[in-house]
């Protein structure tokens, strides 16, 4: 028996004897090989990017993120297959599934000291539609998963999802599992659920798994708990600072739109003055009834032109902002830059389904021409 195999057997025996995991499995090379394509550029490009400071970004010109060539490796098609299929049938209200390889999502979960929630999606199974609509996409499940887990999903009939079905011996769907990394190429299955469950049952099972296993899997050292608490305090401080900045930003945007509207009305009024003076020299100013009509028309016009954009960040954040349908795509970039989010540096905006990149060649296109009106959802993708 090789040393690697002995270590694997020893790790599995110790885990089972301590009641930590239900079972251990070895990841197939098909899944492990998914990481090799990005190893030359460093896993930090994917995992650590959201923790980097954006100081350098704001020292550059406002168009810094357009000037860089879009040379990121083409690794998105397979990773986005599940999310595109899911949102096509069940919409965008669902847990935040990372659109990346399984080992990359597992690394994110390890860095954030969280377990991974894995969902293998079988579109043709008769229980799938009701489970997705009545359980997985409900508000209580979405909030619980986004707060406590790193979520990853895959299609059961292709790519890594197919390998997972074979490796884990999935017998029926829907299939969910709570997993965590272990020694070597092993994967710890902490909990698995096969078949339909209600939202309350799913949350109860997941909560029980967290309480039994603990947030620091594989170690009971106090320093890990201290680190988790420090990270939690930092996140709370960052969230508070972000909310304060967001309120200020919203006030600025409201003032901007009010000033623009007043400037537009004033300009139109000045352009029409000479004609009015020729027709009726005595009447120099519009009546109160005319002013009221103009204000009402302006309010109706603004409401009709409003376009709502839902922006989804890779750390799970969702932000909705209103624009005018005549605004250009570059205004969305300016809005994101104004938020001052930590870790948001060089990026671009993409739509989920059908997938389309809105980069430097799309900046002057209006939101209406881009098909965003009256509302749309965009995903923020980091660049190297």
From TrEMBL:
Domain (UBX) ranges: 302-380
Record keywords: Ubl conjugation pathway
Signal peptide (UniProt feature, chain positions): none
InterPro entries recorded: FAF1_2-like_UAS, Thioredoxin-like_sf, UAS, Ubiquitin-like_domsf, UBX_dom, UBX_domain-protein
CDD domains cross-referenced by the UniProt entry: UAS (cd02958), UBX (cd01767)
Biased composition (Basic and acidic residues): 264-278
Compositionally biased tracts (Polar residues): 279-296
Lineage: superkingdom: Eukaryota
Keyword ATP-binding: no
Residue numbers spanned by region Disordered: 264-300
Name under which the protein is recorded: UBX domain-containing protein
Organism name: Penstemon davidsonii
């Amino acid at each position: 028996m090789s040393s690697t195999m002995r270590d694997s057997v020893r790790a599995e025996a110790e885990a089972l004897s301590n009641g930590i995991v239900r079972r251990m499995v070895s990841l197939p090379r098909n899944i492990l090989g998914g990481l090799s394509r990005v190893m030359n550029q460093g896993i930090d490009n994917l995992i650590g990017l959201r923790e980097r400071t954006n100081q350098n970004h704001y020292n550059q010109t406002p168009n810094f993120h357009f000037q860089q060539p879009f040379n990121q490796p083409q690794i998105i098609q397979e990773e986005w297959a599940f999310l595109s299929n899911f949102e096509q049938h069940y919409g965008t209200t669902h847990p935040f599934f990372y659109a990346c390889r399984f080992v990359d999502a597992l690394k994110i979960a390890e860095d954030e000291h969280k377990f991974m929630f894995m969902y293998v999606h079988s579109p043709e199974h008769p229980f799938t539609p009701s489970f997705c609509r009545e359980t997985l996409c409900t508000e209580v499940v979405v909030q619980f998963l986004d707060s406590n887990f790193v979520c990853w999903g895959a299609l059961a009939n292709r790519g890594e999802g197919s390998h997972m079905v074979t490796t884990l011996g999935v017998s029926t769907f829907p299939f969910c599992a709570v997993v965590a990394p272990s020694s070597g190429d092993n994967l710890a299955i902490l909990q698995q659920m096969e078949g339909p469950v209600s939202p309350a049952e799913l949350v109860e099972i997941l909560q029980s798994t967290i309480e039994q296993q603990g947030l620091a899997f594989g170690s009971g050292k106090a320093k890990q708990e201290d680190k988790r608490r420090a990270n939690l305090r930092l996140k709370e401080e960052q969230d508070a600072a972000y909310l304060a900045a967001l309120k200020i930003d919203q006030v600025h945007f409201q003032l901007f739109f009010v000033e623009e509207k007043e400037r537009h009305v004033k300009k139109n009024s000045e352009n029409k003055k000479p004609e009015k003076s020729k027709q009726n020299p005595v009447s120099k100013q519009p009546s109160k009834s005319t002013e009221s009509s103009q204000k009402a028309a302006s309010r109706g016009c603004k409401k009709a032109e409003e376009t709502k954009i839902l922006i989804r960040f890779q750390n799970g954040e969702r932000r909705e902002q209103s624009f005018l349908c005549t605004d250009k795509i570059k205004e969305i970039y300016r809005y994101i830059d104004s938020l001052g989010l930590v870790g948001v540096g060089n990026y671009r905006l993409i739509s989920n389904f059908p997938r389309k990149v809105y980069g430097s060649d799309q900046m002057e296109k209006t939101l209406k021409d881009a098909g965003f009106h009256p509302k749309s959802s965009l995903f923020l993708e980091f660049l190297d």
